[in-house]
Design a protein that fits this description.
The protein has about 450 residues and is mainly alpha-helical. The chain contains 17 helices and no strands. The chain is globular, with a radius of gyration of 21 Å.
Length: about 450
């Protein structure tokens, strides 16, 4: 694989702890620093779901105020996701070249400004354009947080850390719709974007004060744009990396179909109020977080690939139940458990697939590799979002079909593209998530 590597670092092939816990203990408490790092990085990775989920209960009201339809309103979600994808493609390689801190702080400052502009959008077309900018600037937090984890952890330890981050990240989809529904009692929907601007300011200050540089100059990439393009090509040519990236993207596509379609399906078709919808959405997000923590506890005891398969099986089963509930008229009591199964499965899929992908050759270009994972994830998610409303707001069939199909596709990709070679030389990413020994 023709990946352009940075100057050779002095590091072990498999890292299971932080870079130097003893040194951190001597300077003021390694465990305290680790908990603070979890809080900040988890909050950074929550920018995406927070930007999307806070105003989900407001989508019907937004459509009315801007005199537009459900599909056009859902495009404001797609626009944000498209921005998140494009922004990661820029911020990830930049962080490999410039270090992690500078691109992170610049992105967070721009996110706060873009969110404030969204609050003043006079038309749905303007809001769509600004949402692209908001997503692109917020993407720096997501991609660089993943790269920082990969700077410090690898293999099973990385899977556990990603699972731990979901304790913080998972609070966004749990609390955001509930908070959004309650805030709508006090303010119109533009006020929600002003709240997001305040969140951006808080994250900027947190990163400024609490995130140190984790990529020293000796390990930074060189070569400019051409080297970045070659790196992306090399990563895409790695069958294992590409397989896990597609698994993440397709499973997130199923999740995002649920995210974009459920406000209309559960409120307009099944009659849930914005507040009740927020509670239901939060319960489903709690399932994601709980599954991630179970997976984190089992990592090291159970193969990461097996944990990934469990998550994909849950999502596929949930999609099948959802289809059956919609076509048989089982009502909200059939739909809600099916959606809970789909979202809980994601808690096993995302941490383990990410840890498996960010090993091997990808470990030496973590920023670019993380960016390509993010681009795949959010590009497929954004493409799937409008499918939920393609037949209008009066039917749940498109949402159910899309979720079921994407879950099946993710399972098929994992089973075929990431299976072990037949020559007996199994890639270590297949079983534990550990990187194979570096040559020489």
């Amino acid at each position: 694989m023709a990946i352009v590597r940075p100057r050779p670092p002095e590091r072990k092939a498999i890292m299971t702890q932080t870079a130097d816990p003893a040194a951190e203990t001597a300077t003021g408490g390694w465990m305290d620093r680790r908990l603070w790092l979890i809080l900040i990085l988890g909050s950074l990775t929550a920018i995406g779901p927070l930007s999307i989920d806070l105003y989900l209960p407001a989508l019907p009201a937004l459509a009315g105020d801007l005199s537009t339809g459900a599909m056009q309103t859902q495009l404001t979600l797609t626009a944000c996701v498209a921005g998140l994808a494009a922004g990661q493609a820029v911020a990830g390689p930049l962080s490999d070249t410039l270090g992690r801190r500078r691109p992170l702080l610049a992105g967070l400052a721009a996110y706060a400004a873009a969110s404030l502009l969204c609050a003043a959008a006079p038309t749905v077309e303007t809001l769509i354009a600004l949402r692209v900018v908001q997503g692109a600037t917020g993407a720096a937090g997501i991609v660089i947080a993943r790269a920082i984890v990969r700077d410090l952890y690898q293999g099973v330890a990385a899977a556990r850390f990603f699972s731990t981050l979901m304790l913080v990240t998972g609070l966004a989809p749990i609390l955001a719709p509930v908070a959004g529904g309650q805030l709508l009692r006090l303010m119109p929907w533009p006020g929600l974007f002003a709240v997001l601007s305040g969140v951006g300011v808080a994250l900027f200050l947190g990163a400024l004060l609490g995130v140190k540089e984790t990529l020293p100059p000796a390990r930074r990439a060189t070569g400019g744009l051409r080297a970045t393009v070659r790196t992306f090509r090399g990563l895409a040519a790695d069958r294992m990396f590409a397989g896990y990236a597609l698994t993440i993207g397709l499973s997130f596509g199923a999740m995002f179909t649920y995210i974009s379609g459920s406000p209309f399906v559960l409120q307009d078709i099944y009659g849930l109020s914005p507040q009740t919808f927020g509670i239901a959405f939060g319960v489903n997000a709690l399932g994601t977080v709980t599954a991630a923590q179970i997976g984190g506890r089992l990592a090291g005891l159970v193969r990461l690939r097996l944990l990934l398969a469990v998550g994909l099986g849950m999502m596929t089963a949930g999609g099948a139940v959802l289809l059956a509930s919609v076509f048989t008229g089982a009502g909200v009591y059939g739909v809600l458990p099916a959606l809970f199964l789909v979202t809980s499965g994601q808690g096993f899929v995302l941490p383990n697939a990410t840890a498996l992908a960010l090993t091997g050759p990808a470990s030496e270009v973590a920023g670019s590799a993380s960016a390509l994972l993010g681009v795949t994830q959010f590009a497929l998610g954004g493409a799937a979002a409008p499918l939920a409303g393609i037949a209008g707001p009066d039917t749940a069939v498109p949402m159910a079909v899309s979720i079921a199909a994407l879950a099946v596709l993710a399972s098929l990709v994992t089973a075929t593209a990431t299976r072990a070679p037949r020559d007996g030389g199994a890639d270590a990413r297949q079983d534990t998530g550990a990187a194979p020994p570096s040559p020489g």
